[in-house]
Amino acid sequence: MLDLGTSFLASVSRDPRALALVDGETRLTYAEWFGVISATVAGLDRLGLKPGDHLVTVLQNRHEAATLHWACQFAGIVITPINWRAKAEEIDFAIENAQARAIAYEPVSAGSLRDSAASQRIPRIAVGTPPGPGETAFTDLAATEGPPATPRADAEAISLMLYTSGTTAKPKGVPRRHRAERAAALAHVAQNLYGRGERTLGVMPLYHTMGVRSLLAMSLIGGTFVCLPRFDVTGALRLIAAERITNLYLVPTLYHDLVHHRDFPETDTTSVRKLGFAGAPMTDGLLARLTDAFRPDLFVNHYGSSEVYTFTINHEAAGKPGSAGRAGLNTMVRVVPLGGDPSRTAAPGEEGEIAVIAKGDEAFEGYWHRPEADAKAFRDGWYFTGDTGFADADGDLYVTGRVDDMIITGGENVSPVEIESRLSLHPAVSEVAVVGLPDERWGRIVAAFIKRSGSTDEAALDAHCRAGGLPSHKLPRRYVFVDEIPKSPVGKLLRRQLVAGEYVPEGTTEPHAEGHEAA
């Protein structure tokens, strides 16, 4: 397997004049971008960074962030991107945990950086903003023309380290080797049937595995990565039309916002022929809406993680709603009975924890300095995902939620996903999240949090669920109408906030006062 620096050189050789990167007025071919990347490598040398060092970035999806990513691949530096919304203490944690040797920031993250004690002790790269005392401007870093960059890392070197989002503990570092990153990018091209010269909307953040995959995949096919620094529907629709985007790879929440925006019907989206989603299940209602709106040639449900990029692929997401499909090109998948023998595979229809083979080409090999997390995640050569699911009689996988999200009500295991999918089909439901709330009699009750798009009430929703065949123990015992469903920066439902009572009821401005015990 090639290292990523050599892989990029091959792309430049194949497609030197192809458009590689777009960010506003910045438009670079592969040959031009290689020149900027080479200058950036020379600039990182002047900062004293060496192969194996970590560079933390706190950046949105801008051309400088993409350039730093590739420069690190050539220089053998481990790029360590974190959320541009990170607070000072989160920046401190990343710097100290990764033992970072430098950090790059921009105006949106400048305030947190100023309050970060750890960032003041290492070189700082200012992107899109005047540098402070002792800092280096990115424009200066990349201004001096350097010799053509040559790869200093091999396929076994660490390419980047992503951080998983922490809920009850500190985030875990996920170091990934060049060979695993390239294998994942190749699989992404093959599994999405990308052709030469594709154009993708680069909106999934480059601190997230989906964003990184889009960036690397485009380089393999002479494709174009069109930067959208942060998601806004108007900007996304404008770029789709103006840049003739050919494929979208987004989380369901962003698709929802696109097709429900007032400008969508008037936007020319005919260039988009391939849709892919990941990061969360997609409701049946949204699948149907997207199919009708785009009429895509391919609609892919990709199920994976930062640790192992691909678990499963469903190439006909709309044809078999809810199914995550079957194992991807570089892996094997099994469902293990909950609390059962790791070597046993659950029977069709039997719910269990989803595990993937640990030696797959796309897989990481363990968390950064977290042996206790490794001991929990790896068993008998399999990586246990923490997700629950089952395989149907055809062998297709269905993801039912997280082990921690499973609602045990009256002794019955209830998955939120099935209930959410049914409720999403109601015409007056815009968004829905289902959680288990504490109850003295039942232990937990099924509660549905609803964002309404029309007139409906509890009785109507209950009748809708019954008509869809939900058994009585899965029917919500409580409905809560809210103006917004809490989500992470990449669009994942934050069920724990709902369980904790952290939401604003519909039609009010004050947060809900009643708290709940943690799930």
Automatic annotation (TrEMBL):
Pfam families: AMP-binding, AMP-binding_C. Keywords: Ligase. InterPro entries: AMP-bd_C, AMP-bd_C_sf, AMP-dep_synth/lig_dom, ANL_N_sf, ATP-dep_AMP-bd_enzyme. One of its GO terms (molecular function) is 2-furoate-CoA ligase activity. It is an enzyme of class 6 (ligase). It comes from the Bacteria. Residues 11-368 form the AMP-dependent synthetase/ligase domain. Its EC number is 6.2.1.31. Residues 418-492 form the AMP-binding enzyme C-terminal domain. PANTHER family: LONG-CHAIN-FATTY-ACID--COA LIGASE, NONRIBOSOMAL PEPTIDE SYNTHASE PES1 (EUROFUNG)-RELATED. This is 2-furoate---CoA ligase. It comes from Methylobacterium phyllosphaerae.
